[in-house]
Amino acid sequence: MTAAIDIGNTRCKIGFFENDSLIKLKTSVAFEAIVGALKGEEVSEVIVSSVGKDVSNLGKELSEKYKVVKLTHLLPLPIFLDYSSTDTLGTDRIAAVAGAFHLYRGKNCLVIDVGSCITYDIITSDGYYKGGAISPGVEMKLKSMHTFTARLPFIEHPEWVDLPGKDTKTSMINGVLHGTLAEIEGMIERFSGLLPDLQVIMCGGGSNFFESNIKHHIFVRSELVLIGLNSILRHNERN
Fold this sequence. Notes:
Elements: E1 2-7, E2 12-18, E3 21-29, H1 34-38, E4 45-50, H2 56-63, E5 67-70, E6 80-81, H3 91-103, E7 109-114, E8 117-123, E9 128-136, H4 138-147, H5 168-192, E10 199-203, H6 207-211, E11 219-220, H7 224-238
Parallel strand pairs: 1-4, 4-5, 6-9, 7-10, 10-11
Antiparallel strand pairs: 1-2, 2-3, 7-8, 8-9
Helix pairs in contact: 3-7
């Protein structure tokens, strides 16, 4: 069994795989609890992706028991990176498009990862990553309005409310949620104009929040990054 560890900005997720099948999932794992979360599992190999945290000590600790692969842009990949600054390309974006290519091979795909930031990434039917776009996520937008103004409140865990907003709080929520929804739908339209028969896949912690409100046909694969990490690990096993 292999383990894929996705260390994000706010939480860590671990997926356990038998070959290509995700058989077990651990979510919201604290960074300090990653090693403990693997105990008792019959894991032989581990792949780690981190978007920000230094994982050098974690890697050393894991390597005492497992074969460890750390994802970077220099690792042999099952996709091609047609991107001018691969050294600054987030490993979560690499893993997400690798996951899309693994699941929807032969299709042009737009991957929308809704997290702290919202990323839009294109992977072609023949496995070329073409880049994309990055914008602030919901929590970041709400926090910035509070931080950079004198009187707007800090809002956590917003829920959908009816338009128009009847007070400052609901007006802020409407601006962020409906504005983000319009952004996502607009980006789907823009990217669909660039590539024919575009398959749209959403992932990330906020994907289910927007899924039912999007008018376009999409697939939600919450564990896309983990699936991509496992596909990269298996690619390295074969090569």
